[in-house]
Amino acid sequence: MAHESFEDDEVAQILNRGFISIKVDREERPDIDAVYMSVCQAITGAGGWPLTIIMTPEKTPFFAGTYFSKRQRHGSLGITELLLFVEKSWKQEREALLAEGQKITEFLKARQASGERSSRSLPEDFLKEAVRYYTAAFDPKWGGFGAAPKFPSPHNLLFLMQQGEKVCMDMAEKTLLQMYQGGIFDHIGGGFCRYSTDEKWLVPHFEKMLYDNALLLLAYARAFRLTEKTVFRQAAERTAAYVVRELTHDEGGFFCSQDADSDGIEGKYYVFMPGEIKSALGEKKGETFCRRFHITERGNFEGRSIPNLIGDPALEVQEQPDTLRTLDIFRRQRTNLHRDDKILTGWNGLMIAAFALAARELKKLEYEEKAIQAADFVWSRLHQGKGKLLTRWRQGAADFPGTLEDYAFYAWGLLECYRTTLDIVFLERAVCVSDEMLRQFFDPEEGGCFLYGKDSEQLFVRPKEIYDGAMPSGNSVAALVMKKLAFLTGSEKWRKAWELQERYMRENLQHPAAASFFLWVLTQEMEDKGQLICSTSERGIKQELAGLDMDILLKTDENLEQAEKLASFLKDYPIPKAGSDFYFCKGHTCSAPVHSLKELVKISK
Questions:
Q1: Residue ranges per domain, the chain?
Q2: Would you give the distance in Å from CA 153 to the centre of its chain?
Q3: 29 Cβ partners below 8 Å, 6+ apart?
Q4: Rounded to whole angstroms, how far apart are CA atoms 194 and 209?
Q5: In terms of DSSP H, where are the helices of 93-140?
Q6: Architecture of the structural domain at 2-114
Q7: What is the pLDDT of residue 116?
Q8: Whole-prediction pTM value?
Q9: Position with higher pLDDT, 199 vs 95
Q10: Predicted local confidence at residue 574, as pLDDT
Q11: Is the pLDDT of residue 92 over 70?
């Protein structure tokens, strides 16, 4: 629509004569997008992008739709006819349009207020039903769930891997392997595209998003920890390398995405002919590469070939780095990709969490450094003080009040930084941001968090979004943050918030598998593998604790004042004159201290 209509002189004349035109970047203003998408779904029964809304000057919508061609086509209304009709109706039948808008807003407000409650009362019911759903929807041949198009949805895989059941782990592993083999993974430059248009992950929509690669890095790193299979380490490391090379600002923040198109053609950057490969690598190396990565004269995408390893049994044999560098240079010289250089707080929070967690799972110090750099970038550029966050930074300018996703995702990233580094400053920042999240978004009566804050622009409805999409919902991640802070601060405030949030999510989810990230959190809570309090006079304790898969609260001579301020109960856990005291905690009780990790491992089993 941008090229066909909005840049067209005839359409522009009509718009400028009768309307105030507003184009919304839904990544910068997800609150506006979500609220008005609900209007489109209520009016038309479906949603999608581009989203077209016509509303009154008071922002009351009375018409909604998605794509409109410039003129009427195949019986469908064109934007020209639509605008002329609305312009005429606004002059001659304004009261009818206003009444229609009022009916729409009242319907949406009533629907939000009523809210259907789930009949499931026990957390176990949710987990069992979700596993049944994924088992029924699983594609045993190609992995993934349901038919094409297939989305990575790594939070589904995190949930399945947490279940401790072979059938669940098998589904997750199969999906991770097939995605890595397919064309959805960039076998030359690393990183994953947005989704696959076919069932076997071969032909992607070629756009690469920061949030997909963050969640996939996390999923592959977790899969490696659980299975120790080299292929999962490879996928994680090549995804991380892509993000560092292509999506990282010089000062540490992460950019949004890379476009699918080059020279106006989708996928042109990523596809090859055999002759191009051979001209770049030489005849012999080129022939070998084409054979392994299925580059043929016939092609597998519009007469050209997407490199892939589908059906390759030798996945753990990596291509030589110099071969990949040569091909990467070749395709950059051939054409280029546009990068969306916005830096979004929420998406950065996901990548910070992924790098911090992957640093532990893969034992890679450089990932810890990337997480810290990005966390510091957001704190210095998008934090306004007292925990207040902005949504977007670009070329030196930050703007737009943070939404729930910004607060929840960034707080999670900070908590993962604290777990990895055990540097108290990240816990301080996480508490600061999360306190503001609670103030701005949390409903202390019913539970659940609103999409936008008390201090933000108030739209005609204020939804609580609980369903996961390509990313987990802000409410799912907020639940994780609340759960972690209940232990890390010992505060009754966070314990009550977590309990209310958990109940709200369970009572309002109509389909458990639609919030798999929350189910991942719920599984962790039900398993309760325990947490650790460590009071120590030893330096270098961080390296000893790095391999433990649990939340840890560390008290040392250096952070004593800050730690006891954040978690006042730590006053009852004195620092020994020599060595370390390890307290293993489960539920609301902690064991008597032991003085070595060997003893700790024994009592924690």
A1: 2-114, 146-340, 528-605
A2: 9
A3: 391, 400
A4: 6
A5: 94-114, 123-137
A6: 3-Layer(aba) Sandwich (3.40)
A7: 59
A8: 0.89
A9: 199
A10: 95
A11: yes
